[in-house]
């Protein structure tokens, strides 16, 4: 699943008429890079949730065939359902097996196949070195297990493999995923991987411009 329903407030005015996942990175929409990477990793069936300017996103991507994917859409209307509510709303499309979720506004060169769940795990999170906009990090990582306290601190990359059980008894409507993830971490049921390659939270016009400059120089 690619989370794509948000308004992109920090990206305004670029997102006033264009959903953030369609902003171009290295000559093509950010979400197309994500779809291609997911397909290459063996995840061709992808759910995309729709909120802000969702019809624009669906029109641009269609059924995904030209990208080697099969796309399914989970309309939420507006306002959208936040991360937890959006995933929970899409569960009928995602099915009973563990599924990968990627924030629609991240650029990352990870191989999604490295994310794996242990027997009792509810989630496996990709963690990265702390960017300037999140210097305190979100979690610690020790021996492949995510912990709420400890050093060094790392930042959640917005990429995770989740077991549907994580969303058991989820409330209807909009709700954030972070508190439920932290509960699972506290219960010792979350694995983690430290990704040391490229990762950018493409959350502001400045970061978008910096990423384009970097990629154009490669």
From TrEMBL:
Task: Could you list this entry's UniProt keywords, alphabetically sorted.
Answer: Nucleotidyltransferase, Transferase
Is Cell inner membrane there in the keyword field? no
Q: Does the keyword Cytoplasm apply?
A: no
Pfam families referenced in this protein's UniProt entry, alphabetically: NTP_transferase
Question: Per its UniProt record, what CDD domains does this chain match?
Answer: NTP_transferase_like_1
Where is each Nucleotidyl transferase domain found?
Answer: 1-115
InterPro entries to which the protein is assigned, alphabetical:
GlmU-like, MurU, NTP_transferase_dom, Nucleotide-diphossugar_trans
**The protein, known as:** Nucleotidyltransferase family protein
Q: What is the lineage of its organism?
A: Bacteria, Pseudomonadati, Pseudomonadota, Gammaproteobacteria, Natronospirales
């Amino acid at each position: 699943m690619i989370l794509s329903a948000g308004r992109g407030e920090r990206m305004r005015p670029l997102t006033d008429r264009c959903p953030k996942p369609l902003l171009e990175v290295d000559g093509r929409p950010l979400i197309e890079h994500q779809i291609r990477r997911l397909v290459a990793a063996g995840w061709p069936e992808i759910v995309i949730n729709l909120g802000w300017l969702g019809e624009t996103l669906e029109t641009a991507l269609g059924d995904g065939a030209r990208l080697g994917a099969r796309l399914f859409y989970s309309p939420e209307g507006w306002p959208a359902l936040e991360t937890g509510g959006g995933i929970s709303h899409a569960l009928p499309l995602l099915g009973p097996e563990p599924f990968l979720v990627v924030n629609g506004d991240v650029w990352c060169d990870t191989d999604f196949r490295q994310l794996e769940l242990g027997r009792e795990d509810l989630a496996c999170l990709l963690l990265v070195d702390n960017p300037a906009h999140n210097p305190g990090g979100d979690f610690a990582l020790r021996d492949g297990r995510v912990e709420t306290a400890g050093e060094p601190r790392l930042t959640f990359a917005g990429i995770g493999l989740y077991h549907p059980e994580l969303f058991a008894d989820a409330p209807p409507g909009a709700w954030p995923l972070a508190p439920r993830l932290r509960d699972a971490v506290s219960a010792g049921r979350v694995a983690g991987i430290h990704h040391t390659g490229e990762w950018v939270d493409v959350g502001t016009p400045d970061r978008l411009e910096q990423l384009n400059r970097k990629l154009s120089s490669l």
